[in-house]
């Protein structure tokens, strides 16, 4: 299996999060499945590269990474995460 370029992975993350809108999130596995051609494709090896692309996008301010429903800094990403478009810039409570 060939791992897609980081730009292709980032584009798919941004496409899916834009389709959901800033109020809803996606799972990294959704991106991996789409890149692998669906559930039947070998998508699990893509999870690491998807997470890495998400961290890069978050550092650039193009994505929010959520853990337990709350945004986390890219440096603190671990465990189960979800991805969404950045919010409207309102301060976090």
Characterize the structure shown.
- This protein is an alpha+beta fold.
- The protein has a single domain, classed as Arc Repressor Mutant, subunit A (Orthogonal Bundle).
- It contains three helices and three strands; from the N terminus they run αααβββ.
- A three-stranded antiparallel beta sheet has the order 2-1-3.
- α2 packs across α3.
- It is globular.
Strand content: 5-15%
- Summed up, the domain count is 1
Distance between the termini: 43 Å
Structural class: alpha+beta
Q: What strand order characterises the main sheet? A: 2-1-3
Element order: H for helix, E for strand: HHHEEE
Roughly how much helix do the residues carry, as a percent range?
Answer: 25-40%
Q: Kindly state the mean pLDDT as a whole number? A: 91
CATH superfamily: Winged helix-like DNA-binding domain superfamily/Winged helix DNA-binding domain
- The number of helical runs is 3
What's the architecture in CATH terms? Orthogonal Bundle
CATH fold descriptor = Arc Repressor Mutant, subunit A
Task: Using the CA coordinates, give the radius of gyration.
Answer: 13 Å
Low-confidence stretches: 89-93
Q: What is the tally of beta strands?
A: 3
Biggest sheet descriptor: 3 strands, antiparallel
CATH class: Mainly Alpha
Shape annotation: globular
What does this entry show, briefly?
With 93 residues, the protein is an alpha+beta fold. The protein has helices spanning 6-20, 28-36, 47-59; strands spanning 64-67, 70-72, 82-84. Strand 1 and strand 2 (70-72) form a beta hairpin.
